[in-house]
Design goal:
The protein contains five helices and 28 strands. It has helices at about 25-40, 50-55, 110-115, 160-170, 315-320; strands spanning about 1-5, 10-15, 65, 70-80, 85-90, 95-100, 105-110, 120, 125, 130-135, 135-145, 145-155, 175, 185-190, 195-200, 210, 215, 220-225, 230-240, 245-250, 260-270, 270-280, 285, 290-295, 295-300, 310-315, 320-325, 330-335.
């Protein structure tokens, strides 16, 4: 086994034998890799000068990722509202539960965790929206078999995580976004309920693969709605931090399909409560290689991206049971149903 360093990542290259001895833990791997990073920096490798790299302005500053095995796995916890939570270990000593939120543009930590872990605030930088932000540096974050070094996160100064934790009955002290794993393929398997991380790329013409675009680091794909006589393609953000189904932007226009009115549905997300008029669509919705028959659609009036385009939101009620793989470097998303 050998460690390979680049400006993007520090990851393990497998040999034909086992990647790690059974007695090797992610913690000891991170500790050893951190020492190697320091040694490499001392030898003059600019890609490993972690102190300088981690203090570049903006949340896209290149932190390091590492995998103790390929693919690295991290079990997910399904919250009371169906949102995916994951256990992490901060700086080798502080366990916490984070929300895995593809609808977030950056990592977020609670003031409680900042204080408990003694996280250091860095000079003000800029986020994906160009807004000024104060960032805190997490030296190491372990998530299952994977690890992050020198991750930058914003402070949940408004206490949204406290309200969110109270609503789901679980203490949540942070949020992880896809932008934290841009150099890896990230698979959110909502059939087995786990995350998987590995190097590599998706084939652009592969089955179930859709071209996506990034809206402030959040993946947006086209969803096909259809019945026997009509078809409509609408951009949707893939948002694992939303508990709803397919939330359709009314400013995009009305649905040209027969529907059944199901009344008003309320959901709580990381950002608070939302109420929607809910319909049963007499047709299908296709997300990549997954076809949803007679899906539940919720109408909403917001959903403008940074370019002014209206888009919908695909939440966990629509994503449950699906397997999604994100290639953020190439702006590709592969979606298919989970297999029993």
């Amino acid at each position: 086994m050998s460690l390979h360093f680049s400006p993007k990542q520090a990851t393990l290259a497998p040999r034909p034998t086992a990647l790690l001895p059974k007695t090797t833990t992610m913690r000891s791997f991170l500790r050893s890799a951190s020492l190697l990073l320091l040694c490499a920096a001392a030898l003059g490798f600019s890609a490993c000068t972690t102190g300088a790299i981690s203090r570049l302005p903006g949340i896209m500053a290149p932190h390091k990722t590492g995998l103790a095995r390929i693919p690295a796995r991290a079990p997910l916890i399904r919250s009371s509202m169906g949102l995916p939570l994951v256990r992490v270990l901060i700086n080798g000593r502080h366990p916490a539960v984070f929300l895995f939120d593809t609808g977030a543009s950056t990592a977020i930590v609670s003031p409680r965790l900042i204080k408990a872990a003694g996280l250091v605030q860095l000079p003000v930088g800029f986020d994906h929206f160009g807004a000024r932000q104060g960032f805190y540096e997490i030296d190491t974050l372990e998530i299952g078999d994977a690890g992050l070094w020198h991750l930058l996160a914003t402070n949940d100064a408004r206490g949204i995580l406290d309200d969110f934790s109270s609503s789901i009955g679980t203490r949540v002290d942070g949020v992880l976004s896809l932008s934290n794993f841009r150099d890896l393929l990230v698979t959110a398997d909502f059939h087995r309920y786990e995350l998987r991380f590995e190097p590599g790329t998706l084939a652009r013409s592969g089955p179930g693969t859709e071209r996506s675009r990034s809206d402030a680091g959040r993946p947006v794909i086209k969803v096909d709605f259809a019945d026997a006589s009509s078809r409509l393609r609408v951009p949707f953000i893939i948002d694992t931090g939303a508990a709803g189904g397919l939330q359709f932007p009314t400013k995009q226009g009305s649905l040209p399909f027969p529907t059944t009115d199901l009344g008003t549905t309320s959901y709580r997300t990381y950002y608070g409560d939302n109420s929607y008029r809910t319909l049963r669509l007499h047709g299908t919705a296709r997300l990549g290689g997954a076809v949803l028959d007679s899906p539940q659609v919720e109408l909403h009036h917001n959903g403008t991206d940074i370019l002014g385009e209206f888009f919908g939101t695909a939440g966990m009620k629509a994503l449950h049971g699906l397997v999604l793989t994100f290639d953020s470097e190439r702006n590709l998303v592969r979606i298919h149903p989970g297999k029993s």
